[in-house]
Amino acid sequence: MPLSAAETITQLTGIIGADFVIGEPQRMTSYLNEPRKRFHTGAAAIALPGSVAEVQAILRWANANGVGIIPQGGNTGLVGGQVPLRGDEVILSTARLDRIRAIDPAAGTMTAESGVILANAHTAAENAGVILPLWLASQGSARIGGVLSTNAGGVNVLAYGNARDLTMGVEAVLADGRLYQGLNSLKKDNTGYDLKNLLVGAEGTLGIITAATLKIFPQPEDYETAMVSIANLDAALELFQYLRARARRRLSAYEIIPRLGLDMQLRQGMLDRDPTPGPSPWYALIEVARLTKGASGTLMAAIEGAFSEGILENAVFAESLSDRTRMWAAREQMSEVQSKEGASIKHDVSVPIAEIPRLISEGIAAVERLVPGIRPVPFGHMGDGNIHFNFSQPVGADPKAFMAGAEPIHNAIYDIVLKLGGSVSAEHGIGQLKVDLLRQVKDPVALEMMRSIKTALDPNGILNPGKVLGF
Ligand SMILES: Cc1cc2nc3c(=O)[nH]c(=O)nc-3n(C[C@H](O)[C@H](O)[C@H](O)COP(=O)(O)OP(=O)(O)OC[C@H]3O[C@@H](n4cnc5c(N)ncnc54)[C@H](O)[C@@H]3O)c2cc1C
After folding, report:
1. pLDDT tens digits along 116-155
2. Atom of ligand 1 at shortest distance to CA of 148?
3. What residue ranges define each of the domains in the chain, with the CATH number in brackets?
């Protein structure tokens, strides 16, 4: 017999105390409302354990009683992985597991609990004279456990890799309450299967991450940042390859931004002035980290070289912190401005970098055939082959009617992505949004392997039920 919501609340209260169990619907809203505003199911309760032992006790109880547990960090996920699907699940918030356990600049490691907010981990690193180079627009809310569980990317993947690349070890509670103590910081460890990499990116379906040992790096002396005008995406690709060959690993960001997205931000009053060197259909926001004193000028010299070879049209360099902040705001506000401009249809996709110009030109042509007047706003991490291929509704269109026509648009984009050898989820994951899509596009043998792993580690299906694999 499944437990009623009242029984669930009473029994959870017995485990972690009444102060840390939320059962009233009105107090649950901040845990249930997710950024995409697409999923609206209630939950039986919210549990806020304050220690790893309490997480273990909750999972032992849930496993014995068949209660679905949804791990939740900052609730910034964009595919509905952190919110309920059925309505009888318990959301387990990691908010109280928020200690930095250790930081060792000499060893280049930081061990943080899963509920540490990413921005707080940045501050702790900076206070120790180092950086944790995982930068996302959601870093003020996203928590370490959520960032690892979605294998988040962000704007620095080019130089430092994604969350998986930055994780040395994890500690996690398994479905039956056992603790996997994998917090090692070894560069070399060939003792069998890579369990850390199984838990990172599992979106809470295989275990609840309670802490992680992360890589930290020396703080750059400074950054050189520029906004560059580019006539077309072939030139953007050529410029990326040119800069990469010169700045190598110091090239830490190469983001593309369409003019349309900047015009939207200026119209909506989100930028105090235009951060670009002048009108152009495309821009690249480029950043190079200066690692040692007196080594500036790398980006300027490379851009001058590219200019003299006719690869780029114009460039403006950040001359102050406020210039740099404005340039980055122009990039980071791209998603937000679209919600101010009405409804938008979004795709987080990746293709081999050389295919980005084709992805964008074929994608825009296919979608404009479907919806004349649609406003394409593709932007993002060109240096990683990852584009947020978004479309805003035509000016004056009815948002509901526009969203009702989303499926053919998704199909058109995903067909092109798959034809070009790409992925239908580059950095946001599967959650509940892309469960059907995953079934359609993933290699059947890979799906079988994933199902076997899920069944072996969570035989009663209590961990984030229905997400990723659909059970
Ligand atoms: C404005 C904005 C900008 C963003 N920019 C980026 C970006 O540049 N790059 C990028 O990759 N993503 C980005 N995202 C998506 C999102 O911020 C990331 O996916 C982030 O990593 C999620 O962290 P979170 O703590 O909010 O996780 P949540 O949303 O709480 O959870 C996400 C998933 O992880 C699981 N989970 C959470 N904690 C744990 C845990 N301790 N153990 C096991 N499973 C857990 C949840 O069940 C869920 O499936 C952005 C989102 C927003 C709103």
Report:
1. 999 999 999 999 999 999 999 899 999 999 999 999 998 8
2. 21
3. 5-93 (3.30.43.10), 100-218 (3.30.465.10), 222-335 (3.30.70.2190), 343-419 (3.30.70.2740)
